[in-house]
Protein backbone atom coordinates (compact mmCIF):
# COMPACT_ATOMS: atom_id res chain seq x y z
CA UNK A 1 0.00 0.00 0.00
CA UNK A 2 2.86 2.37 0.82
CA UNK A 3 4.48 1.72 -2.56
CA UNK A 4 1.25 2.54 -4.38
CA UNK A 5 0.80 5.72 -2.34
CA UNK A 6 4.39 6.76 -3.03
CA UNK A 7 3.91 6.15 -6.75
CA UNK A 8 0.72 8.21 -6.82
CA UNK A 9 2.38 11.02 -4.85
CA UNK A 10 5.35 10.95 -7.23
CA UNK A 11 3.00 11.15 -10.20
CA UNK A 12 1.24 14.15 -8.65
CA UNK A 13 4.58 15.88 -8.05
CA UNK A 14 5.77 15.24 -11.62
CA UNK A 15 2.45 16.37 -13.06
CA UNK A 16 2.49 19.59 -11.04
CA UNK A 17 6.10 20.33 -11.94
CA UNK A 18 5.99 19.49 -15.64
CA UNK A 19 2.25 19.61 -16.40
CA UNK A 20 2.07 23.28 -17.36
CA UNK A 21 4.93 22.63 -19.80
CA UNK A 22 3.18 19.60 -21.28
CA UNK A 23 -0.18 21.35 -21.53
CA UNK A 24 1.38 24.60 -22.66
CA UNK A 25 -1.15 25.33 -25.39
CA UNK A 26 -3.24 26.98 -22.67
CA UNK A 27 -1.77 29.59 -20.37
CA UNK A 28 -3.31 29.66 -16.91
CA UNK A 29 -3.10 33.46 -16.76
CA UNK A 30 -4.24 34.22 -20.30
CA UNK A 31 -7.78 35.59 -20.61
CA UNK A 32 -9.84 34.34 -23.54
CA UNK A 33 -13.36 35.69 -23.18
CA UNK A 34 -14.51 33.81 -26.26
CA UNK A 35 -13.98 30.54 -24.33
CA UNK A 36 -15.53 31.50 -20.99
CA UNK A 37 -17.55 28.90 -19.06
CA UNK A 38 -16.61 26.02 -21.36
CA UNK A 39 -17.59 22.55 -20.19
CA UNK A 40 -14.87 19.95 -19.65
CA UNK A 41 -13.71 18.60 -23.00
CA UNK A 42 -10.65 17.12 -24.65
CA UNK A 43 -9.30 20.65 -25.15
CA UNK A 44 -10.04 21.90 -21.61
CA UNK A 45 -9.99 18.93 -19.23
CA UNK A 46 -11.58 20.80 -16.29
CA UNK A 47 -13.32 23.42 -18.42
CA UNK A 48 -12.74 27.17 -18.27
CA UNK A 49 -13.69 29.89 -15.83
CA UNK A 50 -15.50 33.20 -16.36
CA UNK A 51 -12.42 34.75 -18.01
CA UNK A 52 -11.79 31.78 -20.30
CA UNK A 53 -8.73 30.51 -18.42
CA UNK A 54 -8.05 26.78 -18.48
CA UNK A 55 -8.84 25.36 -15.03
CA UNK A 56 -6.68 22.25 -15.40
CA UNK A 57 -3.53 24.31 -16.03
CA UNK A 58 -4.46 26.67 -13.19
CA UNK A 59 -4.88 23.67 -10.86
CA UNK A 60 -1.43 22.38 -11.81
CA UNK A 61 0.10 25.81 -11.24
CA UNK A 62 -1.59 25.97 -7.83
CA UNK A 63 -0.17 22.53 -7.09
CA UNK A 64 3.31 23.88 -7.77
CA UNK A 65 2.82 26.58 -5.15
CA UNK A 66 1.42 24.10 -2.62
CA UNK A 67 4.33 21.71 -3.14
CA UNK A 68 6.84 24.53 -2.78
CA UNK A 69 5.27 25.66 0.50
CA UNK A 70 5.14 22.09 1.81
CA UNK A 71 8.75 21.30 0.95
CA UNK A 72 9.96 24.64 2.32
CA UNK A 73 8.11 24.09 5.60
CA UNK A 74 9.59 20.60 5.85
CA UNK A 75 13.10 21.92 5.20
CA UNK A 76 12.72 24.64 7.83
CA UNK A 77 11.43 22.17 10.41
CA UNK A 78 14.33 19.80 9.66
CA UNK A 79 16.80 22.63 10.23
CA UNK A 80 15.18 24.16 13.33
CA UNK A 81 13.66 21.06 14.92
CA UNK A 82 16.80 19.14 15.95
CA UNK A 83 18.39 22.20 17.59
CA UNK A 84 16.22 22.33 20.76
CA UNK A 85 16.10 18.54 20.94
CA UNK A 86 19.89 18.28 20.95
CA UNK A 87 20.26 20.59 23.95
CA UNK A 88 20.17 18.66 27.18
CA UNK A 89 22.32 19.78 30.05
CA UNK A 90 24.21 16.98 31.72
CA UNK A 91 24.58 18.77 35.04
CA UNK A 92 21.84 20.53 36.93
CA UNK A 93 22.06 24.27 36.85
CA UNK A 94 23.79 26.01 39.72
CA UNK A 95 21.54 26.29 42.70
CA UNK A 96 21.20 29.51 44.63
CA UNK A 97 21.72 28.94 48.33
CA UNK A 98 21.07 31.43 51.04
Sum this structure up briefly.
With 98 residues, the protein is an all-alpha fold. 53% of the residues lie in helices and 0% in strands. The chain has helices at 2-22, 55-80, 82-86.
Question: Can you offer a commentary on this structure?
Answer:
By secondary structure, the protein is an all-alpha fold. Helix content is 53%, strand content 0%. Helix 1 (2-22) packs across helix 2 (55-80). The radius of gyration is 24 Å and the shape is elongated. The N and C termini lie far apart (64 Å).
Task: Give the helices and strands, then pairings.
Layout: H1 2-22, H2 55-80, H3 82-86
Helix pairs in contact: 1-2
Helix content: 40-55%
Instruction: Work out the radius of gyration.
Output: 24 Å
Q: Please give the largest β-sheet.
A: none
Helix-strand makeup class? mainly alpha
Order of helices and strands: HHH
> Which regions are unreliable across 5 or more consecutive residues at pLDDT < 50?
none
How many β-strand stretches?
0
What do the pLDDT scores average to?
85
* Tally of helical segments: 3
**Beta-strand residue fraction:** under 5%
Gross morphology: elongated
Distance between the termini: 64 Å
Amino acid sequence: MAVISTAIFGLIILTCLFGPLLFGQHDGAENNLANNFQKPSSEHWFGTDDLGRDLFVRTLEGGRVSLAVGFLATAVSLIIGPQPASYHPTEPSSKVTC
